[in-house]
Description:
The chain is an alpha/beta fold. Helix content is 39%, strand content 15%. It has an 8-stranded parallel β-sheet, with helices on both faces. It has a two-stranded antiparallel sheet with strand order 3-4. The chain is globular and about 45 Å long. The N and C termini lie close together (6 Å). Zinc ion binds at residues 156-158, 240, 242, 282-283.
Amino acid sequence: MILISSPRFQEHTTPPGHPERPERAEVFDQVAAAWGDRGGRVVAPRPATREELLRVHDAAHVDAMEATRGRAVMLDADTFTSPESYEIALLAAGAAVQAAEHALDAGETAVALVRPPGHHAERDKAMGFCLFNNVAVAAAAAIARGLTRVAVVDIDVHHGNGTQWMFYRDPRVLYVSTHQFPFYPGTGAADETGAGAGQGSTVNLPLAAGATDADYAAAYRTVAAELDRYVPELLLVSAGFDAHADDPLASMRMTAAGYAAVVKVLADTALRLGCPLALVTEGGYDLDALRACLESSLGVLA
Ligand SMILES: [Zn+2]
């Protein structure tokens, strides 16, 4: 297994008091350093190319993000840039592609420790702390290589509206999400199941506020069954850890051990299906919980 990590992810700054703050990248760096100290491999990210971004984003959106270069801009009520954000967002998306490529080429699990997160970013707009949709850019890169069955499992407490809509009509991407519901961003009802040729390739498993490790364990038995049915050629995980009980944004009651159990279900399923696995971080806003969840998850994957 490799980690893709860089201290540069601290350079995207947000206004004081914002939960998606540079200290989150300090946690990533500490986790990566500890991994390296134990003999693990840590790889630096490379920026996503414009071609890679344009597979899931409109040119106007990519241009709008590029236009924030060198400036602090409010993109929506909770999404901000700082002067370095465009470059750092390119690195986050590039790291996600690298993780997918490494999983496919080396047959070895890869974990991209990135911010800003991605799964709320839509084709035409930044949203919910997200500038580019990192995991979607990675899924599209895999499809561009000729894959026809890419699964994205979103374990973040929020629904990944951006990822869902980008592939809603595309059977080449199975999008499966567990999330607090009803909750931000409002999407992710169980009856959102895809459309057209993509009918059935979106699976939403909404969970009521207060869900525990046991509730998640039950939900991930369903997720595993969906993956067994789809038989993906690549499994990407939108790895948000904000369903942890200590998270300040959401109201779930997960523990780091519960998250490790979820990651173990996904890793075991990938192994059983002979499917490469790559994880890309999303949310997780209590720093100690984020660290604990990453460590417990890496412990399962190693
Ligand atoms: Zn989230």
